[in-house]
Amino acid sequence: MREERHRITAKKYDAAIFDLDGVVTDTAGVHAEAWKRMFDEFLSRDAARRNVPFRPFDIDGDYRLHVDGKPRVDGVRSFLRSRGIDLPEGRPDDPAGTETVQGLGTLKNEYFLHSIRERGVAVYASTVDFIHAAKRHGLKTAIISSSRNCAMILNSANLRHLFDASVDGTDSEAIGIKGKPAPDIFLEAARQLRVKPARAIVVEDAIAGVQAGRAGAFGLVIGVARKGDAESLLGNGADTAVEDLSQIEITDGGEAMHALPSALERFEEIAGAARGKRIAVFLDYDGTLTPIVETPDRAIMSEEMRAAVVELSRCCTVGIISGRDLEDVRDKVKIDSIVYAGSHGFDVVGPEGLHVAHQVGTEFLPVLDEAEGELLRELGSIPGVLVERKRFAIAVHYRLVAQEKVESIEEAVDRVSAGRPELRKARGKKIFELQPAIDWHKGKAVLSLLGALRMDGTDVLPIYMGDDVTDEDAFRALRGRGIGIVVWDEPYETAATYSLHDPDEVGEFLLKVASFRKGGRHGQ
């Protein structure tokens, strides 16, 4: 039998929003097993107390109907209601297994995390291929999940870079998003992407998920029927249903990008976009304000660059967002009139008493201490390697290491991070870094700073400049509302709009912006 294929015309849509469990990662089964284990233990005790026959949790029926795709506590409530069981709500800090809605939900999560630690995270390669195709055709992408473990799973599977926005269970609780089948979580993702729901695609595998996509009036709702439940998905709101996303082809896209125009050569375009607006300029430090050097302590900003930043700060809001610790980057720059965001934006200070705290909780410090000690033991015998402990991260620099040793260094980093789902591995230029596995990056830091500075309106043009993979999150965050400028010596795939060659060109660009803002020949 020939497999039916479906085509999507890319020009009809601006974005695609993907559910995590069962669509991107093969974790739906792990969730179902954790639900069954938790509920069967509870149901067995409950049946014995009431002297009634024990009726176990059914994955094929109960999971799909009552808990799949829903926030954890909503799933607990829904299933218990189906069995006529009424439990107290309890509190979020109820110990795992307490016979409350919250306590049972916490126990289910512990079982799920235990399975993930033992098995790892499996990824649907066809979905990843589909996401890459969507991005090649110019679509923005977002990930949504009712789970609070979304960031950990994405980082464990090295998938976070594929998405321009994410909304998970933690976000839902913080901003009061209703669970599926309400469309709120998808609508929030569309809002973050700055696209209209009618121009966005929803990809879901749960009945509650396709119901939510339909309720939100999204342009296309795709049901992923991995268990042969296509009819159920179609009957509950999916426009089309496939067993695997390899059955869908995206057509009519643009050509692949090979290079970007120079921000200096196209400055008139940038000035045109900035006319009548306030300007906020955010800068990476290493590789943007300073050349890349052999060791972090040698990255010293030139006096010419410092003068350019000072000049710009007299007429624009200027911020530096760096992976360095806050005090380290402040000590390197030594300018009082700008905003500093250290640790990729966790720790922020600025003029006139500005202070924004997005600090990682101290609960991550013990596991970072353990990982640091193990890395020092693993890598201490390799000449040239530098293990740099930051407050909330550990950087492993290998710029001075022989090329044939790099693979063994990465293997050691992978071994140290294995079994520690609290940490994620990130990459940079000649660096591996272990960071807390939470959904935070430079893109969210930029957006948070704009809000704190009261510069998140349409009368502001944000500009972000950076040279590394960690800066791509900021470029993506500013799509449609600002300008991303990548600093590179050769082209690669990037979400930036313009390019500069090196820090010397960065300094020249900053002075041109200052001249424009002060009403020079590029003025309003």
Structure, briefly:
With 524 residues, the protein is of the alpha/beta class.
Can you put this structure into words, describing what you see?
The chain is an alpha/beta fold. The protein folds into 4 domains: 6-27 and 121-251, 3-Layer(aba) Sandwich (Rossmann fold), CATH 3.40.50; 28-119; 267-358 and 440-517, Rossmann fold; 362-436, Trehalose-6-phosphate phosphatase related protein, domain 2 (Alpha-Beta Plaits). Helix content is 38%, strand content 17%. It contains 18 helices and 20 strands. The chain has an 8-stranded mixed sheet, sandwiched between helices. Strands 4-3-2-5-6-7 form a 6-stranded parallel sheet. It has a 4-stranded antiparallel sheet with strand order 14-15-17-16. A hairpin with a 4-residue loop joins strand 14 and strand 15. Helix 1 (28-50) crosses helix 4 (101-119), helix 3 (72-82) crosses helix 4 (101-119) and helix 14 (365-379) packs antiparallel against helix 15 (406-417). The longest helix is centred in the N-terminal third of the chain and has 23 residues, at 28-50. The protein starts with 5 loop residues before the first strand and ends in a 7-residue tail after the last helix. Mean pLDDT is 88; it is low at 253-258.
